[in-house]
Amino acid sequence: MKIANLCARWLALAGGVVLCLLGLMVVVSVSGRALTGLGLKPVPGDFELVEMGTAVAVFFFLPWCYLRNGHAMVDLLYLHLPAPVQRAVSLASDVLMLVVWIVLTWRLGVAVGEKYGQHETTFILQMPLWIGHAVGLFGALVGCCVYVARMLADFGLIDPVEPEAGTGAGAHA
Questions:
Q1: Distance, CA of 136 to CA of 92 (rounded, Å)
Q2: 12 and 164 in contact (C-beta within 8 Å)?
Q3: Which end of the chain is more exposed for a tag (fewer CB within 10 A), N or C?
Q4: CA 50 to chain centre
């Protein structure tokens, strides 16, 4: 779990860097559009880069979010259930989430192969689409490892790592 926490944390930080760079690029691009009279221009393909970068950032954030229980939860009924039932519901949702994540990763891997094989590119920059998909696939693969590690910890097969103070909700009880 320590490795899963470390990988998820660094991946989330990388996602944050991607979003910061995208934000800076958008400011430059919008400024270029607003100041065309001064000879400036927008960043070519800015929307393509934002689209690809945002998708990558999402895949980079999800493992960290999952480890910190940042996913959405409807607890209207859940909080009133007995502790053993809460644990069973939590384990069942974790198993289902792992299955969904594995399928998502598998399909993203298929998409990387298809985009690479078909030489698909973005419209303006002519950047190969498989690159963005492959970077997202890296985040999805790390996510699979994190989800498996969390599952092993949930079933008591490895020691769970408690989060540091101030880093979020932490692992399941």
A1: 26
A2: no
A3: C
A4: 15
